[in-house]
Amino acid sequence: MLATDDHFRLVEKAVLGDSCKSSQWRVASWARCLHDYKLDPSRAELVDLTSRELRTEAEAFDADITLATSELEATLMMIEGGGYSAHIANRNGVIIAERKSKDSAFYCSTDRIGAVWSEEVGGTNGIGTALKNLTPTSVYLSDHFYADLTSQACASAPFFGPHGDVLGVVNLSTYNPGVPQLAHRVIFGVAQITADRLESIYFRNTFRKEYMLTVNVEQRSPAIFAIDPDFRIVGATRNARSLFGIDEPAMGVRSLWAVFEKIRGNPTLDYLCDSLRELRPLGSGNVVEVSLRRPISVLTSMPPSLSAATSNNPVKSARPKFGKKVTTLAECAGDDPQMGQNIEVLQKVFGSGLHVLLLGETGVGKDTLTRALHYESERAAGPFVAFNCSAIPETLIDSELFGYSGGAFTGASKEGNAGRIVEADKGTLFLDEIGDMPLQLQTRLLRFLETQEVTPLGSGKVRTVDVQVVAATHQDLHARVAAGTFRQDLFYRLAGAVVTLSSLRERQDLSTIIANLMTQIDDGDKVTFSERAMKALLSHSWPGNIRELRNVLTRAVKLADNGVIEPKDLMLTPVRMPPLVLPPQPPLQAQSAPASGPAPAPERPVPAPARAGTGMRKSATNQAEKEAFLAALEASGGDIAACIKMLGISRATFYRKLKQHGLTSASR
Ligand SMILES: Nc1ncnc2c1ncn2[C@@H]1O[C@H](COP(=O)(O)OP(=O)(O)OP(=O)(O)O)[C@@H](O)[C@H]1O
After folding, report:
1. What is the DSSP track for 122-159?
2. Global ipTM
3. Which of ligand 1's atoms lies nearest the C-alpha of 364?
4. Residue 415 CA: distances (Å) to CA of 406, 408, 458, 634
5. C-alpha of residue 627 to centroid of ligand 1, in Å
6. What InterPro entries is this protein classified in (predicted)?
7. Residue-wise pLDDT tens digits, 118-169
8. Considering the entire predicted model, what is its pTM?
9. Atom nearest to 549 CA in ligand 1
10. Does ligand 1 have an atom closer than 6 angstroms to the CB of 150?
11. Which terminus of the chain has a smaller tally of CB atoms within 10 A, N or C?
């Protein structure tokens, strides 16, 4: 922090015009602080609102705050380790949402929910000055007006609503007098990108029922028009407004053909939807590339009885009629408040043109939740296509996902293959284990996500599709980005909403989940639990999450005598659990444990060797795991489905582990 006197002299000299070093925006802000607001740089008088005042300010935020907080989450993941926290302030400069940096040493305690950061109160500061000038603002250490604040740095960017008025400010701040200026500049860029993304999210969400024309311009934020079926412009992003000279009164009145030269003949919306097209802005020599997306509710394959569905009345009838019962969103939410909140955010983003990234341990229900979202959305009439990036050999991912034309390569089928992306047109594509997507294909996937276009191998024909992508992984994607094995821009493109699903041990509604599962398991309604069995279930740590719980319950229903499940039927003791959920054990012990079939449980769990280091224990567990895989493969006679069932793991985990243990050839 600067000495108060020194800082005061600095401010005074700059305002009097004696300092040639000060940038104009800062001098102008300091002058406002001194002359207009009569603030004293040596005495910061910051204001925190009462909870009642805060409630009023939060209500004054003219948009859905849950979308903004989900965005903050994604931003914080990208800059983790930098010591910055992320905030949303409303248009009055009051912080109404916060996501804290894990690096609490640099936490800016003045930047908390309820703090007022208008320039009139906080002097020159990121949020207040950005709001004053309606422009992104970086306030680095001694840029602050108050001497007390010169140990902190903030990067702030205002964001605007779909009708062009300012909604609030994204703010990233750190309490770190040693933060390098260059690093802070990068954070400033991130704040601006976050603000742009928020604008885009709110715009797409507001105009989701309209056609959406995106103009490809070399600008940071996209130029998008929302247009009605008569080509009237009903909405435009800030960038579209400034580039094409459109203001609010023109909305709903001006035709697209008053902005662009009309294409020959009578262009239909369908013509524009089918591919990337070129349009020439009126009075300009250069053409621009545009792409048009259909409204979310216009699904050509939707039967008439469903076409009138609105977002309040979601389409439900397209659930698969046969086979597996689809778990509902209400069942996914259970009674867990965190899960309920997650689902609320996901429902808002789903179908808005943004993609979704689901994180969470294996078996927490990422696949199940995605299916539920699909079948309770307006895409329900469209296809649900799941693609597991780790279950398909690397060499086949390209052709399987993006498709190929007949005879495109040696061994290709004569008819060709549309590819999973095209199959998912007008529906949902679930990209499971996205962390395993090979790097070179990540580039292709990114291109598709940006343009919604695919060109099947060997066909040369571009096909535009309308696909909601949900990507999922149990891996630490952030670490993969840092290690250079996952593209940062792809992460960002996928992260329209990033939601981390809680593990079963973190959930507060285990008994509800048990009750739900019992309704889904054959004969589950014919048994009850003894008190001791229920106690054992509730106190188990469930390393295998819901999948493990389901397996345990299914088996217990079969083993229960006289319709009552006792602790012995649960077989929760380590030796009888599938290998992947064993605690660390000496190799011999684990090797001798069979992968299936009931056996008398030992009195107590076998302890890990007292002096084994983490490395030793890891390799012992690894070895045990490999042995168990070999045993299961042998016992199942190479039947993958039986093997997976025996091991009690997901198909994705099965293939991942096969690869990890070098057993790939044994699986085919
Ligand atoms: N809310 C729920 N209610 C009942 N069963 C559920 C629920 N969520 C998940 N399950 C069941 O748990 C098992 C694992 O779920 P799912 O495959 O969705 O998890 P996942 O996170 O996608 O796993 P992985 O990362 O291993 O692919 C499945 O058998 C599924 O039916």
Report:
1. H-S-HHHHHHHHTS-EEEEGGGSSSGGGTTEEEEEEEE
2. 0.98
3. 21
4. 5, 10, 12, 37
5. 26
6. AAA+_ATPase, AAA_lid_NorR, GAF-like_dom_sf, Homeodomain-like_sf, HTH_Fis, P-loop_NTPase, Sigma_54_int, Sigma_54_int_dom_ATP-bd_1
7. 999 999 999 999 999 999 999 999 999 999 999 999 999 999 999 889 999 9
8. 0.52
9. 12
10. no
11. C
